[in-house]
Amino acid sequence: MEFYGGVLKAPKVLADIVESVMDAVYLDCGFDVNALWVIFRGLLEPIIMLNVLEEQPQPVTMLLGLSKKDGKQVDVEHRKEGDKNKASVYLDGQFIASGSSEHKENANLQVAKTALKELFYNPYDKMDIEKEIGPAHDRRFICSVQIAIAEGMLFVTGDEKSRVKDAENSAALAMIRGLQESKFS
Questions:
Q1: CATH 3.30.160.20 in the chain, residues?
Q2: Phi/psi at 131 (nearest 5 deg)?
Q3: Does the domain at residues 59-120 carry the CATH identifier 3.30.160.20?
Q4: Is it the case that residue 117 has pLDDT exceeding 60?
Q5: Which Pfam families does the record match to this protein (predicted)?
């Protein structure tokens, strides 16, 4: 399975199954698109939509672009080990990361993501749940993001949300807005 920019390639049959289920629900709803959306919204909203993903560079493209910008030479070596394809990334001749998969494309995606993490990992950057509010059946969350910059640490908290992922997204958005409004953009 591969999601756009991800590590795995999704089989076409998965899309066919989702489409068939949506068709059946659409039929049961009397061809009412609004009713269909009410039913599927909760399932589909957590999935990042294509227009958002298209704005984000692919891991391989990002690795090559960042390396070119820094004047570095990236080499990706491929080899077959049994039934696996193995890819290794070298930056100016120095080994950075490796990844493997049954499919060469997936090995490329995996090694590019691993190399980006290795090259740009900062142990001081983190996202945490700051507060959990309310009883278990009605829990709400507030998350924070902290990043290291040359001038020190930047720390922001997001809005209170009913899901951890939404609270994380709120904190991330607060950080992005803070960076855009500050001298760091």
A1: 59-120, 126-181
A2: -140, 145
A3: yes
A4: yes
A5: dsrm
